[in-house]
Amino acid sequence: MSNRPRLALLAAIAATALALSGCAPAADETAGSADPADAGAFPISIDHAFGATEIPEAPERVVTLGWGSTDAAIAVGVVPVGIEAQSYGGNAEGVLPWVEEALADLDAGTPAIIPSTVEEPAYEEIAEQAPDLILAVYSGITEEQYDLLSAIAPTVAYPDAPWATPWTEVVTTVGEALGKSAEAASVLEEIEKVTAEQADAHPELKGKTVAAVADSGGKFYVYKAADSRVDFLFDLGLVDAPAVEELANGDSSFYYELSYEELDKLDSDILVSYSDTQEAADTFLNSSYAKAIPAVATGAVASVVGVELVAAVSPPSALSLPWGIEEYVAILAEAAAPSK
Question: Between the CA of residue 27 and those of 58, 201, 218, 220, what are the distances in Å?
Answer without folding.
Answer: 12, 44, 48, 46
